[in-house]
């Protein structure tokens, strides 16, 4: 065995999301923003397996999406081994709350993996809405779990664990409160409120929405406006939804981030529940003259093709989205767990996103009473490490569907990826046979053997826990990032892995589901190789880093070079006309070594209230330093850093208090 730890109307404007032109840049400089073009995106990115025609049947209409069909080198082999119920872990979780489970569809249960004491072992934070409480279940020894009791009463709905303040320790986000981590562990009693909610929180998404290198938080509420919380760097946040153009009404299940138009920036996708409730895509336009983030509503799918309302009003109510490069063209496909029906959207050569579910052999799952099942929380995951992505999702009735007669019970679903981009139902044969009504899934490490185990939460029922005893068909490694200029977990980074003839593209942040946030850890299949020959990371900053010979069977943390540092690190100084902030820029090549002779410039956003104390200063170690002096009035400003005329994507913001 092995286990893992620690991601305007079309008719009115005729606007269409477009592909990016290939830009050839030196890998030692920050990658510039790709130019956008209309209708010219058919080329397969360099280094990817070449497509060999269509998969499934030929497209029936102009609205049917077409994926590439990849001839995998490895022969197909059915999954062997099983997922085995961990009744001891389930007992530890159930012992946390003696209140009986009664099938109440308002009673959401979920689990979050988090290393809250810094010992390298993932503990479990178990949340239940009926009790309005969360519990900590520790892992004192590998594979052994113990109920440590309830967290302080104000902490519930724990949905994300990440380093929000950039100090190197995991913080835990429970609802809209953060329990901050340190060398002494997580301070549960000292948790602070970062937003005042007015309704039930359904999702948490972590992303650097304003491209300043700090990790922002998007909170989705079922019957209240969404919150887009800018991280101010000092453990405080401010809601910027209206200012950034990210306001949208709707019963929000989840919020996703992905690059719809291949311009290198993370766009935003808001998913809502119920018929005639609009879903919305928002394109990132980059910073305005004042340095603030800007987004606009866009429609990746032509109106005549969006019959279900994936990006408009309609029947589609996505209960989660998973990203994965199924057809190996370097562009993610997007699976939407909607059930009315589901969607598997593929970006076409002309920039449109079209539904190609018909070509992947995915059937609509049913309950044990043969009613259409409601899918939740999809995850693309290569379960047996054979190089083909598999698809996992939870299944269960929510409040509305639970009121319908003769619905029956659901099962969690696993579809094995096979040649020709086809998927085959396989959950029953590998032990995922628990019945009930499930909503959430948390992949994580129960016993420290570097394979991912699973905890499913649901509606009015206790959690179901599985240990992964699937027989591997190849080797793998776990990969996570540590940003030092980009956000601390590298959310939004593109990761390209080569192992022999196998080439795969992944992204940090690939699943956006209710009540459990992506942890940013990639489980990377290597096939028959004993190591990844190359790992190429395009960081959110635009910096491109290359590593070689990362060994299989290990968990790797790749650190971004400290390309730009600020002193003080908090980015906050007094608005007294005297305090200073020093920027130090250290250009690096793809290996992280200093980039000799690079020309560095630092520019302030328009209307910035501060003054530079002097020009850029070259240091003997190759770094470049420039210092600003704070104004005498409160405010903030954004600084742009250019290396040889090309700007980094990250533009640090500083505050004058």
**First and last CA, distance:** 54 Å
Strand order of the largest sheet: 23-22-21-20-36-37
State the helical fraction.
under 10%
Annotation field: number of helices: 4
Tell me, what's the shape? globular
Beta-strand portion reads 35-45%
Which features characterize this protein?
657 residues, mainly beta, 6-stranded antiparallel beta sheet, 38% strand, globular
Tell me briefly what this model is.
With 657 residues, the protein is mainly β. 3% of the residues lie in helices and 38% in strands.
Descriptive account of the structure:
- The N and C termini lie far apart (54 Å).
- The strands form 13 sheets. Strands 23-22-21-20-36-37 form a 6-stranded antiparallel sheet, with no helix packed on it. Strands 42, 44, 46, 47 and 48 form a 5-stranded antiparallel sheet that branches.
- A hairpin with a 2-residue loop joins β4 and β5 (144-150).
- It has 4 helices and 51 strands.
- The chain is 3% helix and 38% strand.
- Mean pLDDT is 88; it is low at 1-54.
- The chain has 657 residues and is mostly beta strands.
Q: Any chance you could write out the topology, listing elements then pairs?
A:
Layout: H1 10-13, E1 81-85, H2 87-95, E2 109-114, E3 123-128, E4 133-141, E5 144-150, E6 158-162, E7 171-174, E8 177-179, E9 181-182, E10 185-186, E11 192-193, E12 201-207, E13 216-221, E14 227-231, E15 237-239, H3 241-244, E16 252-258, E17 267-272, E18 280-284, E19 295-298, E20 321-324, E21 333-336, E22 343-347, E23 353-355, E24 375-381, E25 390-395, H4 399-402, E26 410-411, E27 413-418, E28 422-425, E29 435-436, E30 438-444, E31 453-458, E32 464-470, E33 475-482, E34 494-499, E35 502-507, E36 511-513, E37 516-517, E38 522-527, E39 531-538, E40 544-551, E41 555-559, E42 564-567, E43 572-573, E44 580-585, E45 600-604, E46 611-612, E47 617-618, E48 624-629, E49 635-643, E50 646-647, E51 653-656
